[in-house]
Amino acid sequence: MEGQLTVAEGKEIDITKPFEITPHQNTEDETKLIGKVLSRLQQMRTKRSAVDKYWDLYQRMWEAIYVPYEDGRSRSQVPLEMAIVELYVAEALKRKTKFKIEEEDSQYEKQTEVFKRVWDYDWSKNNRDSVIIDNEYVTAIFGTSVLYTGFEMKYRVVHTADMQEDGQVKWTRKMQCVDKILMENVDIRNFFVDDKAKCIEDAVDCIYIEYIPEEEFRNFVHNKVYKNTDAVTGRYVYNSDTRQFVTREEKGESAATYVKIIHYWDCQSDVYMQIANDGTIIRQHYILNASKSLPFVIRQYSKNPFSIYGRGLCEILMTFKSDINNLREMLMDAVKRSNNQVIAIGNGLEFDGNQFSFGNQMMRFK
Is the four-CA dihedral 228, 229, 234, 239 of positive or negative sign? Predict the structure, then answer.
């Protein structure tokens, strides 16, 4: 298996030198693997199209975005979902997430105490509360949320300056390895799981699509876990072409250059790989956990026994919310009509100076 994990070594680099792209030609086996992953992605995306076709509507319902009618009718948006979601999240945060381990024997008591302390330290140091809060919001709004859990060695570039005897500054760039316990929210719009599974434990494979800024992707060049990174350039800009909806905050994002990375896990073949820009394998090795399982947790607000995706508050309240909006709009239109001066004109209407008559009724204007 290619791409075995090794520790990256520091290396002096001239940071003023432009990055050079080295062309890479896929082998026959690499081409087959990429084709398999892209085919599975299409199958998963097609299967989920019936589930996520209303996600943009759920987003607008929760944000209570006002959208006027083109014909001038009254329009309102009652923030019902926003209020209920806030109540749910507030109630959910009262439940403290705790580390639990069964003590089968007294000999494990000290080890259990150590694990608890490590859990509490990690929770406070990495601000896991904020991750849980964001996860609760997504769960309530869309009915399904995904947490990425596990362990990973993250690498970052560290620049240091050394003053030479001749007065010149020599810059050194080194890769620094940081061990990190992963507990991250995954954007459900970019997460696809085995289309035949009813729960994450039954899923055979899954795909997570990530967009990394090209400048950040350059940190992978000297990481020996990766390969062929010098053959990849940024090709994508931030837009809604690959998303079911775009939030108001995302619409204001700058058009930076991104590298598209497809993360693929296959429990049956015991393989994890990353594909950059749909055409280059940059990482490939065994699944890095003892259970050889998918490193994700899928939470559902209202469980759907026939699907891995649950139902959220927006879907549950959709019909009720529509009736409330229609009733409010009818009342607003009725008030608008009562404040308008309307004159009915028909046969038999006669005007005489400052008065007019219709049938036996007469009105005079002063």
Answer: positive
